[in-house]
């Protein structure tokens, strides 16, 4: 049974969370305006709702049911009930997670943010990532060949998302719930080492802490991730508008850019095509982006660059049956024709 929310005056944890909310006022959020908050029922997102309510904001709690584990509907309903007992509006959003080749974790993330952005409408959308999430994001990005970080304000799946807790530790969000007498849900997926993020959290982060000698690598990694995010935001702002559209692109537009900006321009251009044509199921590795960039900057007559789902692999390429099945299967590619980059399909050989 959800209970009335109380704000303990002596809670340093709650004060830290409230300061996170106030920090948003420097990023375009107005004091006192209604906020949409992604609420899972875990301690981070509950602490975010608590802090927003403590700061006098009306809240629309958006509880996503990914339908990926037994009892997920009940978890979402209970989170919504808590928020409503605290004076917030609440909606349960049921989503279908469709893996387009990116893996279950990434597919769930895409479905979640699409649903959150749509349900939030014109309200500022807040999510509760902490410094731990920031540190893990840096490592996971590096394992994909691209160091990455999260910004307090960023675009995700076509919508603007605010992350006011990036400077807070998870102990502070858990502490806020404890101080306020709020029970929280522990996601069993957070114990599954088959998920790469969980494996990093459970195995890699403690090992890095031991190497540093203080048992805690989160702070320095989160700081590095924040700087990466800041640098990336600036370089991305230099991408020409024409490279943000799902249309053919003149090679010279990319060729005259510094390589760091050109790489981001290629990525923005490919993302624009992917958003305009989700059925294409784009898969954009760092290697593929680099190959497309070289079509512009180091042209030697090279062939098409594959940027779509590996349909040949799905047909079982590598086996006699698969080799035959893969022949003639269309694949999504980028080609250079007459000084222009074009996204098209090409039959396998």
Automatic annotation (TrEMBL):
The N-terminal region contains the highly conserved SGGXDS motif, predicted to be a P-loop motif involved in ATP binding. PANTHER family: TRNA(ILE)-LYSIDINE SYNTHASE-RELATED. Belongs to the tRNA(Ile)-lysidine synthase family. It is found in: Cytoplasm. This is tRNA(Ile)-lysidine synthase. It comes from the Bacteria. Residues 35-203 form the tRNA(Ile)-lysidine/2-thiocytidine synthase N-terminal domain. The keyword ATP-binding applies. One of its GO terms (molecular function) is tRNA(Ile)-lysidine synthase activity. It comes from Corynebacterium spheniscorum. One of its GO terms (biological process) is tRNA modification. It catalyses: cytidine(34) in tRNA(Ile2) + L-lysine + ATP = lysidine(34) in tRNA(Ile2) + AMP + diphosphate + H(+). The keyword Nucleotide-binding applies. It holds the Pfam family ATP_bind_3.
């Amino acid at each position: 049974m959800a209970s009335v929310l109380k704000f303990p005056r002596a809670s340093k944890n709650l004060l830290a969370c409230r300061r996170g909310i106030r920090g948003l006022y420097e990023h375009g959020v107005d004091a006192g305006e209604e906020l949409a908050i992604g609420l899972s029922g875990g301690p981070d997102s509950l602490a975010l709702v608590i802090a927003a309510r403590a700061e006098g904001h009306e809240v629309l709690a958006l509880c996503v049911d990914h339908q990926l584990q037994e009892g997920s509907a009940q978890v979402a309903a209970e989170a919504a009930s808590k928020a409503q007992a605290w004076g917030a509006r609440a909606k349960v959003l049921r989503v279908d997670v469709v893996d387009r080749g990116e893996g279950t974790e990434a597919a769930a993330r895409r479905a979640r943010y699409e649903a959150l952005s749509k349900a939030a409408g014109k309200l500022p959308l807040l999510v509760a990532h902490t410094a731990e999430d920031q540190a893990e994001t840096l490592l996971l990005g590096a394992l994909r060949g691209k160091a990455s970080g999260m910004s307090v304000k960023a675009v995700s799946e076509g919508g603007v998302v605010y992350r006011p807790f990036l400077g807070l530790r998870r102990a502070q969000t858990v502490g806020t719930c404890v101080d306020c007498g709020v029970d929280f849900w522990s996601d069993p997926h957070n114990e599954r080492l088959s998920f790469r993020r969980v494996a990093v959290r459970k195995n890699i982060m403690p090992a890095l802490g031991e190497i540093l000698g203080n048992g805690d690598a989160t702070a320095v990694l989160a700081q590095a991730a924040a700087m990466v995010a800041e640098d990336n935001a600036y370089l991305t702002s230099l991408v020409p508008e024409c490279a943000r559209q799902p249309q053919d692109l003149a090679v010279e537009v990319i060729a005259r850019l510094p390589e760091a900006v050109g790489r981001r321009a290629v990525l923005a251009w490919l993302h624009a095509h992917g958003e305009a044509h989700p059925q294409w199921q784009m898969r954009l590795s760092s290697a593929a982006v680099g190959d497309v960039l070289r079509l512009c900057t180091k042209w030697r007559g090279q062939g098409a660059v594959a940027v779509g789902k590996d349909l040949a692999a799905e047909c079982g390429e590598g086996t006699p049956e698969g080799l035959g099945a893969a022949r003639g299967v269309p694949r999504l590619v980028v080609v250079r024709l007459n000084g222009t980059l074009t996204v098209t399909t090409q039959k396998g050989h």
